[in-house]
Every structure is written in C-alpha cells, then in structure tokens.
Amino acid sequence: MGRRELITRTSAAAVSGAAVLGAAEGTRAAAADRRGASGGRPRSRPNILLIYTDDLGYGDFSCYGSTGIRTPRIDRLAREGVRFTDAYAGAVVCTPSRAALLTGRVGPRAGLPRVLFPEDENGLSDDERIIPEYLKSAGYATTCIGKWHLGAKPEHNPTRHGFDHFFGALYSNDMTPFELWRDEEVVESVVDQSTLTRRYTEEAVAAMDRSGDQPFFIYVAESMPHIPLHVEPRFEGASDAGLYGDVIQSLDHYVGVLLDALRERGLEEDTLVILTSDNGPWFEGSSGGLRGRKIYTYEGGLRVPCIARWPGVTPAGKVSELPVSVLDLLPTFCAYAGITPDPGVTLDGCDIRSVLEGADTAEHTPIYYFDDLGRTLDAVRDGRWKLHVRRHIENPDDPDRDQRELPELYDLERDPTESYNVSESHPAVVRRLRRLIEEFESDVKAELAKAG
C-alpha cells in the first residue's frame, strides 16, 4: 500500500469592488466562529496562503533593494511580518525545487532530480506524501493554483496528491502545449498569458470563500516571472525596469489583492502568509549582487526572497538572518496543524516555528546544493560557511576546465557575494563540510537504491 493510501469547479470570485466586498460580508461570521473563544487571538491551526513565484531574483522587490521596481504591497507585508535575508529554494531549477517544497525532501531523494517536460512519463510518485495530504488529515481544505510542474500524466495531477481543487498549468509557460486545467480536465488550450496572474488571484479568492468553516491551505504557484514574460496592458510601462519590472509590479498588485481579501473576510489574523520563489533569476531579474543565477549553485541561484506574516505570531518588522529553506515548510506546517509527519519518511528540513516567531538563534540542518540535473551534490552551507566541491559544467567537451580552483570555501557572513576563496586558511572546515557532502550524497543514493 502506498503512503498516499494512508491519507484519509467553482467559479472564480471577483477580486475587487462590490463582488469582493459582498463575498467578504458573507464570510466574516465564519471567520469569527473559527476564532471561537480565543478573544480575537490567532487560532492554533492557521489558514496557510503560500505564494510561490517562478524565477524571481533575490533583489527584485524594493524591500530587498530594488530601485527600478516598486513593490509597495510586498514591502508592507515585510513590515508586518518577518523578512528573511538567508532563505533558500529547494533547488536551482523548477521541478526539483517544487518537489522539495511539497515533500520536504530534496529533489533527488523525492525521485525528481531535474526539470520535467511535457513528454516525460515520470512525475510525483504515489509514495511521496506531500503538504496537502498531511493538512487534509487535519481537516484543511486544499487548493493548488498555477504552475504544477511535477508530472503531466493523470496520476501526477494535483487532485491525485491531496489537493481538493486545481486550476492552472501542468508545467512551465515556455513549454507546449501550454494549457489551463481545472482539476483533471483541460479548460483552455489557447491561453492569454497576460491574464494569468489576475486569474490565479481570482481563483485564490474563490478558494478562501469555498473553505467555509474549514482552515485552508492555498498554494498559489505563479507562472511569472518565468519567460516568456507577459503582463496586462494596465501594467505596461509601470516600472523603470522594462517588461520584467512591469511583471513584478503586477505581481505586487495582486499579492495586495490577496492580502486585502483576507482582511475583508476577517481572515487576516488567522492566516499564515508566506511569499517566496522557486529559484533565482534566469535571463532577467536581479540577484541582489549575489554571485550566479538560476542553474548555478552560487548564492544567486538558490537564495531567494522570503517573507512570512501571521499577525500576533510573527513579529512585525523583524529581519532574520538565520538560514531557512522551503524544505522547512512541510514540518513547520504540520506542527502548526497539530500533526506529525510520517516517521518512516526521511525529511530534509526543520520545524522553524521558533524562527518564524522571532527567535534570534536556532539550529538548522545544512543547506545542500545539487546541480541542475540532480546528478551531483556540488555545495553545502553549514552556518556561516559554504563549500563548493563541483561547479556547473559550461562546456561538455571540456568539463575539467570548469572545475578549476576547487574546492571553494566562503564565509557568507563576511562575503555573501562569494568573492574570496578562503579554503587554504580553513582546512579543518573544508574537511568537515566535505564529509557532510559525502555523507548526505551517500544517504540519498542509499535510499533510492532501497526503493528500487
């Protein structure tokens, strides 16, 4: 029996104006009931709104240093919650990063080490137990909106893996055929991609309204700013950073719509909102001065913006420099929901409730950086130190040329741009981190071999 067996089309709501306000009136009473006797304090089992952007750069929000792109709603979210300076995606490319997010396991361990394409037969295994499956067992209503990218066959559909509802695309917006699905049916084969961010937002608002008196988990996986870039005409020319900047400002606007919808429905105090990205920027976008971009295991490929807000729980205006990872979300969400992850499953993340709630110190497992195909474990961060033992191969005809000057050791507290290799000055640190890489790589390979 697979682990999934152990787990026990509505119209999109309008996102502004009278329709939203009317829907809000209809749900305030339910929100009050959910708060119950707490006297207005946040409930123990929060709603969870997880917004996951695609190929967003570390420096693309103004609260992360952008000057050509204005993101006032996201900046406000940061002022009202915790903004992380050292948050990490689960991989340097789409599929393994999404697998890491939802399974709490690195992509290779979860059987999804590389980007999937429409013709691929493989996808998310029934043996993997993901966030919505756990949360459903705790009574949550679960909705997946936007980019899935964990397999395109019927058995990989989000509704087969714990989501009550799905609206979105099965893979990236540069792959064909690019279609929109509702649950397990194609509902649109010719897609105006400029409307995606708005429509995903409408679907998320509808999911809030649909949840009734259940807590909800709404996963909004944006298609933007992955190329090809598209934006509604109202946002064209809005930024000082070209079409890419316009796309980010559109995202900012619709994040604001979601936050307004929570407040208007009396759900703001009961909802944990997390905003982050699947990896670093690709052709455009700012790495915020970090070395590397998507595909590379330097910080610009894996370090991402991350903001968390739960009024009354996350301290307003906190800037945390503690390392966190999307791998931490599954154990953390389970802890807030009052459930325990399957003890027979190896998780690669930590419960970070104390960090979300303002801790200044916390232990964290090492951050591991696999290459873009999931073949090799190329780097590790443990505390302030990061060691590279392999590097992305630019020229397959001369692979050794790309591996010169290794290993590289960087003190990320003093040198976050990874500019100065200090491996010769700290040989003991190099040996310790190299052992971490070897042991973790062996552990993943052993689990895969055992699974057959």
UniProtKB/TrEMBL annotation:
Residue stretches making up the Sulfatase N-terminal domain: 46-339
Keyword Aminoacyl-tRNA synthetase: no
InterPro entries, sorted: Alkaline_phosphatase_core_sf, Sulfatase, Sulfatase_CS, Sulfatase_N
Keywords: Calcium, Hydrolase, Metal-binding
GO molecular function: arylsulfatase activity; metal ion binding
Entry-linked PROSITE patterns: SULFATASE_2
Pfam family, one: Sulfatase
Protein family: Belongs to the sulfatase family.
Protein name (database record): Sulfatase
Organism: Streptomyces armeniacus
